[in-house]
Design brief:
CATH topology of the domain at 2-38: YefM-like fold
Number of helices: 3
Shape: elongated
Distance between the termini: 63 Å
Radius of gyration: 26 Å
Helix content: 25-40%
Number of strands: 3
Structural class: alpha+beta
CATH class of the domain at 2-38: Alpha Beta
Length: 78
Amino acid sequence: METVTIHRAKTELSKLIEKACRGEEIVIARGKKPVVRLVAVEDKRGHRKPGALKGKISYTSDAFASLTDQELENLGFE
């Protein structure tokens, strides 16, 4: 974990962001007192894997059958 002053962080922000994106943790200090931690934001996009839920979801054969009039009424439809 690298600690840098606010002044250095302002002058080297692009470099520090690159380090954070590579997984390093940067602490920004006011004088010698740590005040902020610079870490990369986790990118949730692109982590989907087709078929990841295969075999984990099931349904009965009547799952897509039409609802009865009573079921529709119970749901608020007339």
